[in-house]
Specification:
By secondary structure, this protein is mostly helical. The chain has seven helices and no strands. Helix 2 packs antiparallel against helix 3 (64-93), helix 3 packs parallel to helix 6 and helix 4 packs antiparallel against helix 6. The relative contact order is 0.11.
C-alpha cells in the first residue's frame, strides 16, 4: 500500500490551489504580444489526453492506484519539461540575470526536507516502503533537486555576477538570443526547426 501522510495531501491541495490561481491570473491579466506556443499546447494536450484515456480505463477496471501512478508519471515528465527551457536560456545567455534564485533555494530545501521526511518515516516504521511504495514522490523530488543544483551552479559558479549592468551584449548577440527565446506571435518559425 502506498504510504500517504496528511502533509502529502495538504501539499497536493496547496499545489492545486496555487496552480488554479496562476491559471486565473493568466486568463485575466494582459499578456501583450505573448502567446502560448504550439509546442506547449501540444504537450499539454497530449498530457490531458493520456490522463483522460487512463481515467476511463481505470473507471472500468477500478484500478485507482494504477491511475494515481499514471498521474505521478505525468507530473514527473511535466516537471522535467518545465525546467529544461530555463536551463537552456541561462546557457544561451551565459547569465542568470532576472532569474529568481531564492525560489530555487526554497525548492531545494523542500526537496531535501522531503527526502528527510521519508528517511525518518522509514526508520520509524522499520520499512523502506516510503521510497519504493511511492515512486512518483521520490522521482519528483529527485528531478527537482537535480535541476535546482543545476540552477545553483549556473547562478553561483558558471555565471556569477553577470547581470545587465555588468554584461555587455552587442545588438547582434541580443538579436540572436531573442531569436532563440522569444518569437513574436505574428512571425512564422524558422525553416530549420
Amino acid at each position: 500500500m502506498i504510504p500517504v501522510a496528511a502533509n502529502d495531501v495538504a501539499f497536493s491541495i496547496h499545489a492545486v490551489l496555487l496552480t488554479a490561481i496562476t491559471l486565473f491570473q493568466i486568463a485575466i491579466y494582459e499578456r501583450g504580444s505573448q502567446k502560448v506556443s504550439k509546442i506547449s499546447i501540444g504537450i499539454v494536450s497530449v498530457a490531458w489526453l493520456i490522463a483522460a484515456v487512463c481515467f476511463f480505463i481505470a473507471l472500468s477496471n477500478h484500478s485507482w492506484l494504477w491511475l494515481l501512478s499514471i498521474f505521478n508519471t505525468i507530473q514527473v515528465v511535466m516537471t522535467i519539461i518545465k525546467y529544461i527551457p530555463q536551463v537552456v536560456m541561462n546557457f544561451l545567455r551565459k547569465s542568470t540575470d532576472g532569474f529568481s534564485i531564492g525560489n530555487i533555494l526554497l525548492d531545494l530545501s523542500g526537496g531535501i526536507a522531503n527526502y528527510g521526511q521519508m528517511v525518518v518515516q522509514s526508520i520509524d516504521q522499520n520499512s523502506w516502503v516510503n521510497f519504493y511504495g511511492n515512486i512518483g514522490k521520490v522521482l519528483l523530488s529527485l528531478v527537482s533537486v537535480f535541476f535546482d543544483i543545476i540552477f545553483i551552479i549556473q547562478h553561483y559558479v558558471l555565471y556569477p555576477g553577470k547581470n545587465s549592468s555588468k554584461l555587455v551584449i552587442t545588438t547582434e548577440q541580443d538579436d540572436q538570443i531573442r531569436e532563440h527565446l522569444v518569437r513574436p506571435s505574428d512571425q512564422s518559425p524558422p525553416d530549420n526547426v
